[in-house]
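Hey, quick one: can you model this chain's 3D structure?
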Amino acid sequence: MSYQDNRELARIRAELRMRLLSRRYDGTREILKKLREAAMSAEGEDELRGEYERWKMRFDLLTEPLNRGN
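Sure thing. Here's the predicted structure for all 70 residues.
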């Protein structure tokens, strides 16, 4: 990965952490999509794919009650 790619990943991670801690979930899908794209384009980056899955699962669990209307 290039310096620019690593910098973008750091920005994505910081944004996801901020949303998790502030409980602001709006727009999270778009950020997760960027992380997924980075994970899929990085050859041999199983760790990055796992990280994407963990972030996605966190936000899916947190937003599930919101999606059900509770």
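One thing worth noting: The first helix runs from residue 3 to 22.
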